[in-house]
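User: Reviewer 2 asked us to show a designed sequence for the structure in our supplementary figure. I'm pasting the structure tokens here. Could you produce the per-position amino acids so we can include them in the response letter?
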């Protein structure tokens, strides 16, 4: 059984971008484990610690982390905080190269641009590369909202020789149910991460 841990990206009852799947029809041997918060979160240090505690409580030896939009940043930080458990990471259409504090509800989580910059994935590539084993699979998929940022991020990863797969999909809607997760899972399978591994 492949264990997928999905990080929330919106308020629990917000369906603007669809809802995170409870199962993956194309991959019935994949178990989906949602992480839950009572309100919208941005994945600063405190939220990442709370998320890690939830993941550890699942008692799973190996997982694939999935982040969509703002939770893509969470997936990036959480993977490098628990590399022994995260076999693969899928990040879809996330603001990974945004130099100023995003305007979408970040105020309770980041005090200013400087605090945001410290967490920006673009500035933490070296730490990620040092933390993650060579067997880790990183899948980046762009969408209509943050394609340019995801492309720039992939180029930055290439400059550091951090192995990853980038799937440019600039016309895919910023939505849970547009096929990107299945595409990312196909890449995870091809990389050698299989159910029961």
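Assistant: Here is a per-position design you can include in the supplement:
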């Amino acid at each position: 059984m492949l264990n997928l841990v999905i990080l929330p990206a919106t308020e629990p009852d917000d369906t603007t971008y669809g809802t995170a799947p409870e199962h993956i029809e194309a991959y019935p041997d994949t178990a989906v484990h949602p992480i839950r918060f009572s309100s919208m979160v941005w994945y600063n240090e405190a939220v990442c610690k709370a998320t890690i505690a939830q993941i550890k409580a699942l008692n799973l030896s190996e997982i694939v982390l999935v982040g969509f939009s703002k939770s893509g940043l969470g997936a990036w930080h959480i993977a490098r905080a628990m590399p022994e458990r995260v076999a693969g990471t899928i990040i879809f259409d996330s603001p990974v190269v945004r130099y100023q504090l995003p305007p979408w509800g970040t105020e309770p989580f980041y005090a200013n641009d400087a605090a945001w910059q410290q967490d920006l994935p673009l500035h933490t590539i070296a730490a990620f590369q040092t933390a993650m084993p060579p067997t880790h699979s990183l899948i980046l998929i762009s969408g209509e909202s943050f394609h340019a940022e995801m492309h720039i991020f992939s180029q930055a990863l290439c400059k550091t020789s951090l192995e990853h797969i980038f799937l440019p999909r600039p016309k895919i809607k910023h939505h849970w149910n547009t096929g990107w997760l299945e595409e990312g899972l196909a890449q995870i399978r091809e990389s050698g991460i299989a159910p029961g591994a």
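For the response letter, you might also mention the following. The domain at 2-190 is CATH 3.40.50.1820 (Rossmann fold). The longest helix spans residues 45-57.
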